[in-house]
Amino acid sequence: MNRRNIVAALALSVWSAGAAAQLLGGITQPLTAPVPTGQAAAVRATVAGIPASLADTGTLGGAGDARNASQVAGSIPSLLSAGVPQAATIGWSDQASSQASLADLGMTVAGIGISAGFVMASATAAAGTAARAASLVENLAINGVPVSVTGAPNQVVGIPGGSIVINQQTATPGGIAVNALHVIVNGLADVVVGSATAAIR
Amino acid sequence: MRKNLWLGAAALVLGLASTAANAWCDFLTGGGFIITTGSGIHEPAKGTFGVGGGCKHGEPWGHLEYQDHANGLNVHWLTITGYAIVYTNGEERDPKRTGARYICGTARTNLYGDVDFVVAAVDNGEPGEDDWFILRLRQSGVTVYTTEGDADHSLGGSDSGGGNLQLHKPNASTEEFAPYYCAALQ
Predict the structure, then answer these.
(1) Which of B41, B55, B87, B146 is deepest in the core (most CB within 10 A)?
(2) Which residues from B are below 8 Å from A91, CB to CB?
(3) CA-to-CA dists, residue A10 to A2, A15, B177, angstroms
(4) Across the 201 residues of chain A, what is the mean pLDDT of every consecutive 10-residue run?
């Protein structure tokens, strides 16, 4: 390429970039496709600094991905046992959806017995609409005493040295995270039973 | 409402006798419990489950976990061999569409050894108490366990809040044709 052609090519390149910027200046839609993110786990726990999980899907790989994890029964030694823990997360070009569930939860943390017949969390984020989440907690009991589950987001029940948050919902960038049960014993344990996140951005 | 669902359940159970072709694919996921007698083999008890079905890059996708609390049956999926659409109400992109799906595969059990299974899973809308879960296990062409003969296939039985089954729309991974085989329907 001779010098004149190089100058012409550069000029064309500069014009193209400027014209493109001018044209793009009037566009308000994002130039990149939305990216779905999501993850779900039947149990995610940290006790005395040691992490553990049951039926964790891992991170969604974007639009067109689907991930699942399940066991017929599972346990985390010295913490909990559960039946049929399972989780799934699915991505679309305009949506992400995650859900996790388990049955027959039996947990002992810091000497506190927590049980539930069935626990489920689900989260969905779709482009152009508000993200939504839901939890289902059946027959929750603490030390054998039944707990009334209201269904409202972020119901807090106090326990010695901590709390249990039921249907804990947190807005995230472009989505939502929901924990069906979040058991916190200060300085000792952080246990989430039924965790689902979904976002699109 | 429940009365109409019963009629649908009967039709669905009868439908289990036939095979279905997989024209296209989407996803169904969920968990919950039914009240089952195992079609009359024991007193009513919980049958808890987690299930998923669909297609991903030309292969059937999903999982099945099931426990019968009366006889101690545990079922853990090994392979998913087919996913079939029985019927759908609503447009493909309608987030509130409902419908029934078959999820087929093989599983390992603690009472019968390895089996073929088919799940008939029905999303009848939210919150999920009217959704249905029906399970059949077969071994060498003989049914060894089924909930088809139960009086109520809805989640939670006569009580509300026994879980939820959620039908999802197709995504890019479902566009490839996935093979369909359902030995438990043969």
Answers:
(1) B55
(2) 171
(3) 12, 8, 48
(4) 38 36 46 90 97 98 96 97 98 96 97 97 96 97 98 97 98 98 96 98 92
Flag whether residue A107 sits within 8 Å of chain B, measured between CB atoms.
no
Strand partners, B108: B76, B114
Half-sphere exposure of A70 (CA within 13 A, CB side): 33
ipTM of the complex: 0.90
As a residue count, chain A comes to 201
Q: Give the other-Cβ count within 10 Å of B28's Cβ.
A: 26
Cβ-contact A97, B176 below 8 angstroms: no
- Tokens 């049956």 locate to B73
What is d(CA B18, CA A199) in angstroms, rounded to the nearest whole number? 40
Map out the domains of chain A as residue ranges: 1-29, 36-200
Are A68 and B32 inside 8 Å of each other by CB? no
Q: Which among A63, A101, A124 is the nearest to B50, CB-wise? A: A101
All residues of chain A having their beta carbon less than 8 Å from the beta carbon of residue B50 are 55, 70, 84-86, 101-102
Provide the domain count of chain B: 1
pLDDT tens per residue, range B16-47? 444 444 447 999 999 999 999 999 999 999 99
**Cα distance between residue A106 and residue A83, in whole Å:** 9
Range of the domain at B72: 2-185
* A30 SS3 class: coil
Name the residue facing A70 among B50, B162, B173 (closest C-beta): B50
Whether the Cβ atoms of residue A101 and residue A120 lie closer than 8 Å to each other: yes
Q: How many residues does chain B have?
A: 186
Pick among B48, B68, B75 to test the A interface (most A CBs inside 10 A): B48
pTM beyond 0.90: the answer is: no
Q: What is the C-alpha separation between B119 and A192, in angstroms, rounded? A: 29
Query: Partners of A2 in the beta sheet?
Result: none
Compute CA distances A40 → A96, A163, B59, B106, B114, whole Å: 11, 22, 22, 24, 29
Q: What is the pLDDT of residues B99-143, one digit of tens each?
A: 999 999 999 999 999 999 999 999 999 889 899 999 999 999 999
